[in-house]
Amino acid sequence: MTLYSGEFAADPHGAYQDMRRRHGSLVPVELAPGVPATLVIGYREALHILSDPLRFPADPRVWQSAVPADCPVLPTMEWQPNASRSAGKDHARYRRASTDSLDKIDLYALRGAVERAAAALIDSFCESGSADLLGQYAVPLTVQVLNDLLGFSPEAGEEAFAALAALRTVSDAAAAEAGNRRFTSAMLEVISAKREAPAADLTSWLLEHPSGLDEAEVVQQMAMLYATGTEPASNLIVNTLLLMATDDRFGSELLAGALSTRDAIDEVLFTDPPMANSCFSYPPQPQILGDVLLPIHEPVVISLAACNNDPATVNGDRIGNRSHLAWGAGPHVCPAKPLAMVIVQEALDQLLDALPDIQLAVPAEQLQWRPGGFHRALEALPVIFPPSPPLNLV
Questions:
Q1: I want to staple 147 with a disulfide (CB 3.0 to 4.6 A). Which of 157, 208, 268, 300 is the partner?
Q2: Residue 245 belongs to a domain
Q3: What is the CA radius of gyration of the chain?
Q4: With contact defined as beta carbons under 8 Å apart, do 83 and 334 qualify?
């Protein structure tokens, strides 16, 4: 079973059902041509793995030493000195620096920043009666908010976004390396500026943290926060908008107050989380789980989307149920969940308050999903709505 095909991107849930029928909870897959892995699609098995970092550490260095340099998934999975790609004491040190810095963010002030960014973006297209809510709203909103949280200048923010956008589309190692160098160069300039003039932002707090991160480590914490705070958040916004535009429960019942945008977000986190297959680990010894032997050092990938919909655990109406694994679990659970929920929910509320009659501009089955085994991401979300005057709130 391959995760990199267009067919998989078009119908991942059909693929998960076929995997479950043929293999059970642990599925042999290819992440790229010639790159084997085990995909975990059982909820209980996923919790077991995510809660056992000794037997399932996240450090990929032994695995990647045997992977060709031009492997297309290497830029996504390779070792970096950050919390998501490390284990043991290194993981504890990096995670403490990131979580302590994230905990300093004022969520009330963040909500206001999202409201202002949303209002300006809505004003840019509300009179036209149509928009691509991915490219014209969700992406620029999340990028602007993350730029502010990290303390980027407008120029540094543009350079960081351009570098990571290029990395998302490259297909060869040389181009990926060039994109990494471009991003690192932009981050080093930001770090230099923050050493001279610290401020109330994530970069300054990382530099000041008692863990004593060096420049390369600070760059990688910034890269992790930026990458996980922009694209997954923007995809969660548009995936939720798609659900609300196509599911009758989030039409009349939303207007009647029976359901909320938070309910819609949680439904998407169950069914179409933006990080569909992630949480990589690499067993340092062969592991037996159930009746399956997991090979030494071969990637084990958690299918957050498939595990959330495991028939062994799904039971009835899930409104108000937040037991999904979209944020991960165990010691690598996403530390930025409260921030992400503020950004996504405020972005949705502002848009739907301003333009309550949004409809898809094309049938849902004509929307294109980006190929790739790790994300659940639309190419665009074209919509139409009655033209509206600008909000003029900023």
A1: 157
A2: yes
A3: 21
A4: no
Burial class (CB in 10 A: 0-12, 13-18, 19+), 135: middle
Q: What are the CA-CA distances from residue 216 to residues 14, 38, 183, 200, 382 (Å)? A: 42, 31, 12, 21, 40
* DSSP assignment string, 192-217: HHHHHS--SSHHHHHHH-TT---HHH
User: Which residues, including other chains, have CB under 8 Å from residue 325's CB and lie 6 or more apart?
Assistant: 43, 46, 47, 50, 302, 304, 307, 308
Domain span holding position 291: 6-384
pTM of the model: 0.93
Q: How far apart are CA 121 and CA 392, in angstroms?
A: 11
CA-CA distance, 71 to 251, in Å (whole number)?
44
What is the C-alpha to C-alpha distance for residues 348 and 345, in angstroms, rounded to an integer? 5
Reported as a single tens digit per residue, the pLDDT across 186-201 is 889 999 999 999 999 9
Whether the CA torsion 240, 242, 247, 249 is positive or negative: it is positive
Q: Which residue has the tokens 């009330």?
A: 108
- With a cut of 70, say whether residue 176 has pLDDT above it: no
Q: Report yes or no on 1 lying in a domain.
A: no
HEC assignment per residue over 101-140: HHCCCCHHHHHHHHHHHHHHHHHHHCCCCEEECHHHHHHH
In a domain, 252, yes or no: yes
C-alpha distances (whole Å) from 189 to each of 180, 199, 357 are 14, 15, 44
The string of pLDDT tens digits covering residues 203-231 is 999 999 999 999 999 999 998 998 888 99
Domain count, the chain: 1
Closest by alpha carbon to 137, among 228, 235, 232?
235
> Collapsing DSSP states into helix, strand and coil, what is residue 382?
strand
As given in the structure block, the two tokens for residue 135 are: 């490219």
Determine the residue type at 105. Answer: I
Burial of 292 (0-12, 13-18, 19+ CB in 10 A): middle
